[in-house]
Structures are given as C-alpha cells and as structure tokens.
User: Fold Putative proline/betaine transporter from Streptomyces spiralis.
Amino acid sequence: MPGSRRREKESFPPPPGMYRRMGREHWKKIWIGSAGNMVEWYDWFVYASFATYFAGAFFPHGNPTAQMMNTAGIFAVGFFMRPVGGWLLGRVGDRRGRKAALTLTVTLMSASAVLIAVAPTYAVAGYGGALVLLLARLLQGLSVGGEYAASATYLTEASDPRRRGFASSFQYVSMTAGQIVGLGLQIVLQRTMSDTALHSYGWRIPFVVGALGAAVIFYLRRSMLESEVYEADATGGEERGTLRALWAHKREALLVMALTMGGTVAYYTYTTYLTKYLSNSAGLPKRTATLVSFTALIVFACLQPLAGRLSDRIGRRPLLITFALGSTFLTVPIMTLLGHAGGFWPALGLSLLALVVVTGYTSINACVKAELFPTGVRALGVALPYALANALFGGTAEYVALWFKNAGAESGFFWYVAGCAAVSLVVYVTMRETKDLDLTRVKTAPKSRLTPAS
Assistant:
C-alpha cells in the first residue's frame, strides 16, 4: 500500500475562517444525499434486528441457533450481491451522474422491502418463503452496493473542500439514523404487541414502513442537484466508470479494500450483531438488549460530525490510526466484559466505549475513499472494492460470530475482529494523507498505462 503515495498530492491552502457557517444550499445537498441513505440502511438493518422474530417463520422448528445461522446466512448472501451492485450502479454514477445512481438505488430497496413484507412462511409455502427472502436480500445487496458509493461520492463532491470530512460524516449519521429508527420501531412494537404476535406477523410491519419511506425519498431525489465537481469534469470519455478505467487505479482500489477490512468488521460487530450478542450470550432480555443498542447508537450518530470536523483540521490518518489501535487492543476485553454484563448500564457503558473507538473509522471513511480517485471513476472506485471488502468481512461478521458460538469457542470471534483491525492498522500507518487533496485536480491515468497516475 505504500506505493499509493507515489501519486502527486494536489492541495489547496487552508483559508482563514475555515469553519464559517455553511450555506443553505450545502445543507440541502447533505440532507437529500443522506436521507435516502437512511432509508436504505433502515431496511438493511431491520432485517438483522428483527431476525430473532422471523427466523423461525422461514425454517423448520428445531435448534434456535441453527435457525439464526440460516437467517444470518441469507443476510450474508446480500453482501455478496453488493460487488455486483457496486459495479453496475458505480458505472451508472460515473456515466449518468450521482443523481441517477442514487434514485435507482432507493427504487430497488423499496422493492426488496415489499418482498419481505409479503413473503410466505415455511408453514404456508415450505422453503418457498425462504427463497422469496433470499431474492429480497439479493435486491437489497444490489441496491446498497451502489448506494454507499453514490452517497459517499456525492456528499464528498458537493461539500466545501475544507469541510469534506464534516459533510461526508453525515453518511454514517444517516446510516445510524436508519438503524435507530428501526430499533425504535422495534421497541414500540415490543411494548405494544405480545411476543407471540411479533413472531407471528408483527415483524412484517417495519418492512412495510421501509417501503413507504423509500417512496418518499424517491420523490425527493428526483429534484436533487447534481454535484458541481461531476458536472465540471469532461474527461474520461467512453471509459468513464469502466473496469478498464478502474484498473488504471488498482493500487487505490486495493487500498480501499484494505482500509475497509478492520472498520467494517468492527462496525457490524457493535451494531448489527450487538443486540443478538447481548440477548443470546450475555443473557439480557431482548427488550433490554434492544434498548442498549438504541441508546448507544444515538450517541454514536452524534459523534460522527464532531469527528468528521476534527479530521478537517488534523487530517484523516490520526483518526483511522486511533480506531485501529483501539480495536486491536480493546476488542477482546470489551466483548468479554459485555458477555458478563448483568444489566442495562454496564452493557451501555461498554457499548459506548466500543462505538467511540469505531467512530475513528466511520466518520471519515467515505471521504477518504472518494478522495483517492478522479471524478470519472470515483463512484466505481469507491463502490466495487468497498463492496468486495464488505462481502468478505462485513457481511460475514455475524455468521462468523454465530459459527464460533455454535462451535463452543465464542471468544475466537473476538480475536478475529481484533486481527482484522490489526491488518488495517498497518495500512493506516503507511497510507498518505488525503485531507488537502483537490478533487478537481486528481489526475486520471493515461490510457496507455495500467498503473495509477503519478
């Protein structure tokens, strides 16, 4: 990865008054660019947070852990569709514009939510219901595979160059907000419906809500403005958004995969998997485990802009390195203590500690990746390698955790998470700083070369 340093660093001088009040137009772009992201990730995470209620609906009765593993396996399959979505929708984003890609992704997500809401159970259609669930997850993977990159690229390009870290941090604010809404709805349903009703039909309600939310965001995105950086760029021609163009920046693509590895495993461990871990391993009631996750995620969302703004001042690498060090050395003790948390407050305190560490990655990873590529291949350059890393590490995190648990060696998963963070730490230490890069002057590699521009 050190070889990625060879590309010339184009920078701009930091002007005085760096943190003047952002204009209404900037906030509008941030809102529209991230609001759809919230709905996308609401649907994505609702599947995981409600899995404990519908796992038994699609598979034969028996070992609850085996049912959860089957459901988690389908969840992981969605991640393996993300590279396809990253390629297809990244190409759309680079050739047709960020607006076109963002509109298409939210349409696909709405369709997948409807499919899950109406999927027949095992008692009605045997494994036919599981096949419908699988199809819906494939559509979700396709959609989210493109959404992340289109949103990251749009928020990075549409913001003030001196505030890219702050603006792009709202991607994880919106992602986390989607999960908070999902968990909030789960808390409401848990307190207004019986456990039997939730297992029977109540779990379908959040997917209906997700489909309706996607329809609203589709309307908003039809009127969104294209980023000025994209509109001003006229280079690339027919090779915009192609794999050939991306190959010319293969070092940067590999860098995206490597720096994503530790972050995505840690993120999914302390968000998607946390509620199940507190319930199944720590022995907390489902309601208490859900409330812990809900409260911790609210604080986590509030931390993102603060960390993003800090990165605009001191750089991206210090935050990434801090995250990797914390995850490498604190994951095992935090997860071990969480497994013995006897109540709400100990579990919340440990969860917050873990999420504060993860903030060093989540708050700025979108802009760091977007800053590595020229405009003509930026969406694809972020989408495909990020989706590949998520398919290999993020999407499988929950399944790996349950596999270790089923094998009677649950602590092995803790060391797995720490090991992934250690690999990313090496990358963060050796990569170049991207804070002062001018997106309008990042060079496109010559057609005759198959190596990154230098």
Observations:
- The chain has one domain: 33-225+268-435.
- Residues 33-225+268-435 form a domain with the Growth Hormone; Chain: A; fold (CATH 1.20.1250.20).
- The two ends are 15 Å apart (CA to CA).
